Amino acid sequence: MRKILLAMSAIGASLALAAPAHAEGRAEARGGVFWGYGDSEATAGIALGYDWDLGDSAFVGVEASGDKILAAGYKISFGATGRLGVKAGESTKIFAAGGYTTEPCDGCEDAWHAGAGIQQAISGGVYIKAEYRHFFVDGFDDSDAVVGGVGVAF
What we know:
mainly beta; Porin; eight-stranded antiparallel β-barrel
């Protein structure tokens, strides 16, 4: 996990140095539903990220997150995610995301994840977001999550 976070940080730093384009930090709180392992449960978490413009209509970003399935026996799982998307107008971002998530419970496994989402600016840097993620779990059944979030861009 440490190697992935370092790689994501190095990628983000090189993009920041190489691209004079507009960059935007973001912080969000999110909640939703996770299903897998034969059950579905509520989930909640936070994320910090950074996006860089790739011209007028595209962007690339990185994100670090901590999410918890809100049931007994689960712990906070940490994620490192990259995202690539398009700007659909002045206030809407549509993106694909992928990365790595640590185990959500002691008997579980780490997982690669992939998904997609939409982020809509509201006012004064505040945005709302909806995202789907599929978790590819080696040796276990795959799992999924859908979350909605509220954040602030800075």
